[in-house]
Amino acid sequence: MAAxxxxxxxxSATGGPLGPTSTPPAxxxxxxxxxxxxxxxxxxxxxxxxxxxxxxxxxxxPDVTETWVAVGVTATMGDDTPAQxxxxxxxxxxxxxxxxxxxxxxxxxGPKGDAYAKLTxxxxxxxxxxxxxxxxxxxxxxxxxxxxxxxxxATRTLRRSDLPFRLTQTIExxxxxxxxxxxxxxxxxxxxxPAGPKQINTPFAxxxxxx
Length: 211
Hints:
Elements: H1 28-43, E1 50-52, E2 68-78, E3 83-87, E4 93-109, H2 113-123, H3 131-135, E5 138-143, E6 147-148, E7 151-153, E8 156-158, E9 160-175, E10 183-193, E11 196-206
Parallel strand pairs: 1-2
Antiparallel strand pairs: 2-4, 3-4, 4-9, 5-9, 6-9, 7-8, 10-11
């Protein structure tokens, strides 16, 4: 049985599963493309020479004399305590803010692969170059070692330099959780008395009636 997505027309007042009503964040191929665009901006490599690592239809592999890069997110780890921020305007809604750590691998192929890997690494440390990154909800964490892993193709050596690095991605999703206007019930607790523990049952109503 296929899993169904949560409907977006439910609210906390209607009951039922809540789906986010905000615009979906960049993910999958779109996210790989954004990161590739950031690399293009700091290296000057042509756009057709910076490619998502995994595509439905793989384009022609450039010749060993050409320099190009394949980039993609290889792992995603979200924090276990996302923030829930309630906004009381109008009927109210809640923003769920989650920080994800993205492990990214950029593989630079061709005769200048190592040089472009170093250029990417150095350029991402420049604050102005990270402005576009932050605009996309991303930020730099750190880089790992650049490793040379050449490949042999039809008796020819294809130079390759792998640049692993980490980014954070901030994702905010809006859920239609309404303001609590009125509630009633009973608070149950165990309190201490000189005679020992005592069960306390206190009815309450909100908003409270005038004194």
